[in-house]
Amino acid sequence: MLAFRMTIHRLPEAVCRGREIEVSGRRVVPLEATAEIGRAAFASSFEEVFARLAALPRMFIEPDGSFVWVSDHAPLPWQVDGNLIDAQGKLRYVELKGTCPVEAWEQLLATLGWPDVRLAFQWVEQGVFFDEPQLRRFAKIEPA
């Protein structure tokens, strides 16, 4: 089960990993936090991502892009709360908090185009950005 509070952005090509640091007792290599991450929009529009999210089972999504995705309570209950943030016709980033199993996490990422679309994850409490492989290492997520 993964517990998180983060934002998800499209990872621009120009952004690379920084130096290894310790975050919450773990040695990781975060992305260099640049303004490029904040400016990079997804190729998909708000409406396209909205429709993909709405197709997930037990997903409740509002017209403003706020959503709640819940488990079927077996074997463990989980919930993800989020917001789609758009600008100039494109999805800019996604705010997320909650808990879910790896399989659900990967379903959620797929609505953003992953694994074809490279993603950057800002772990809000620590204020660091990770690419997907480093996020898995930091959060100890095992591939499904």
Describe the fold and architecture.
The strands form 2 sheets. Strands 4-5-6-7-1-8-9 form a 7-stranded antiparallel beta sheet. Strands 2-3 form a two-stranded antiparallel sheet. The protein is globular and about 40 Å long. The chain is α+β, with helices and mostly antiparallel strands. The mean pLDDT is 90. The chain has 4 helices and 9 strands; from the N terminus they run βββααββββαββα. It has one domain. The N and C termini lie close together (12 Å). The longest helix has 9 residues. Helices cover 22% and strands 36% of the residues.
Give me the secondary-structure topology.
Blueprint lengths: L1 E9 L10 E3 L2 E3 L6 H5 L6 H9 L4 E3 L4 E5 L8 E9 L2 E11 L1 H9 L8 E5 L4 E4 H8 L5
Antiparallel strand pairs: 1-7, 1-8, 2-3, 4-5, 5-6, 6-7, 8-9
